[in-house]
Amino acid sequence: MQPHRRPLPAPAPGDPRPTSPLVALPLLLLALQGATAAPAGSGGAEDSGWRQDAALPRGLLQQAARAALHFFNFRAGSPSALRVLAAVQEGRAWINSKKEYKVDLTFTTERYNPEEGEERLGNCSAQVFFRNEKPRPAINVTCTRFIENSKRQQEDHLLYKHMKQLKNPLDVVGIPDSHGYIDPSLRPIWDLAFLGSSYVMWEKTTQFLHYYMAQLSGVKQWKTNDDAIEFDYTVLLHEFSTQELIPCRIRLVWYPSKALKVKYHCQEQQTPEEASGTEEGSAAAPTELSNF
């Protein structure tokens, strides 16, 4: 039975898989809107089959915050606006008979690459719906202004201009190096890879598994006939809980202030049914976000 709740300010992605290799996020969200609604607040919880869980599972709030940030970073589509989790402030959760969790929480973030002396924090609120042990949680997240829109656009365009002026397309292996060092000239490539990987990490997150990009093991830049920058790269994602390193090949198409496009394939030991649902994905972010 569908739970009763206030309408969400924005639709959130959910169960169905994209059928096209590269799909615009607004269309994806429209298709998923009816399938991903989660209960909000405590009103009507008993009637809807949801009850508030007073004893939160260990790490559930942090897991929800990380998943929300992966989705937020991907949706923003800006390597200059990447955020990481600072601290969870508060949250509460509801559980239903299927052991699915709906989490409402607030948390603080900081820039992925803070400038020297910068200590500014941004605040976020999110609603995350974990479908038991299934990947790809449904997320609705809003964050306060963290970096001025004009500054973000300027930094993105400087990076874009640098990449377009390269005489030869990049063909890089191994970031960071064996000592954990990332050459400053390669940092933008790492950030672009992290941006694209955010989509993969969101799609693969479950209530019990979360991911972080551990290494960029190969990068190949393609010459394009349009203005976009296109990369083929391989990353190793650290899968927490299992402590495995998952290699994923990702295709990223990026242009500042335009839709981010991602397609990927990860090599894992899964059943065919599991693999078909989690190994490939594609989507694009809206050009602008109201909460930037």
UniProtKB/TrEMBL annotation:
Q: Which GO terms describe its cellular component?
A: extracellular space
Keywords, A to Z, come to: Protease inhibitor, Receptor, Repeat, Signal
MF (Gene Ontology):
metalloendopeptidase inhibitor activity
Record-linked PROSITE patterns: CYSTATIN_LXN
Q: Where is the signal peptide?
A: 1-37
InterPro entries xref list:
CYSTATIN_LXN (IPR049897), Cystatin_sf (IPR046350), Latexin (IPR009684)
Where does the record place a coiled coil?
none
The segments labelled Disordered in the record are 269-292
Low complexity composition bias: residue spans: 272-286
Domain Cystatin LXN-type span(s) in chain numbering: 52-151, 171-274
Q: Which Gene3D superfamilies match?
A: 3.10.450.10
Asked if the keyword Repeat belongs to this entry, the reply reads yes
Q: Which PANTHER family match?
A: LATEXIN, RETINOIC ACID RECEPTOR RESPONDER PROTEIN 1
What the record says about family reads: Belongs to the protease inhibitor I47 (latexin) family.
Q: What is this protein called?
A: Retinoic acid receptor responder 1
- Give the species: Rousettus aegyptiacus
